[in-house]
Request: fold
Amino acid sequence: MTDHPWLQTRSTSENRTGSYLSVQSVRKIYQTRNGDVHAVEHADFDIDEGDFVTLVGPSGCGKSTLMSMIGGLDTPSTGNILLNGKVIEAPHRDFGYVFQDATLLPWKTVMENVLFPIHTQKRDVKQYLPEAERLLKLTGLYDFRDKRPAELSGGMRQRVAICRGLINDPQLLMMDEPFSALDAITRDDMNLALARLWDEVRKTAIFITHSIREAVFLSDRVLVMTARPSQIICDIRVPYPRPRHAGIQEEPLFNEICAFIREKIHASHATHTPAA
Ligand SMILES: Nc1ncnc2c1ncn2[C@@H]1O[C@H](COP(=O)(O)OP(=O)(O)OP(=O)(O)O)[C@@H](O)[C@H]1O
Reply:
């Protein structure tokens, strides 16, 4: 595939012992009353520290299942997931999560919501105040720190959720379709806000979206999954440096990468018959 220098391939003999996050031959089968559901057939990839990696693929292909297993919230049926060489076996206290619904506590202020993980982990909340203030400034929410969630827009609530996910300096931030409930204009703004935030925080992140353009704009790497039985069929290193500006979305290369991913997903739909 010399036509696509951004498409990555990995030799199976590669030494993976030094990998930051290593997903090794992972498969997940759910046993249900209606039979086995092969949620993830084969996932095998490594993630470097500091990379922003997005999973894209058709609905039901196992993206959230894979993320849950990485977070230790679920276990692989076969295979292993290792962080710094240690198998992830339980939910990680050092991981941050952001979901489609911001799930903020309505009776708490923005600041109290951001600091909530510190409160529940019984750490010294005062010590984390400067970091909460920094994150709120970076996301343009500092002036709203004393407001309650009901007084915020949907995009602002998601930004609060992202600050909350970052407050304890997580080793990994996982975001499962955080912007999918937002309107298109707010979503564009959120993409820019998240890209700007990433220029500052440079955390390792795993992100799930159905938007191919969002995936390419935000990510260092995009992993494309097929419909069930799902596998990762492409591994793309997005060839744009950071900081990223909105204008790259108009460039032919950006559109070429998006078209390539779209084509791969459509082709996988045509060749995979989803199980019940
Ligand atoms: N706890 C469970 N028990 C049984 N089946 C499950 C369970 N969790 C997920 N599944 C099934 O596994 C498959 C993958 O689900 P998953 O939510 O991981 O997909 P997804 O790619 O994140 O979907 P979407 O893009 O629609 O959010 C689906 O068929 C789903 O119904």
Remarks:
- The domain at 20-89+212-276 is CATH 3.40.50.300 (Rossmann fold).
- The longest strand covers residues 35-47.
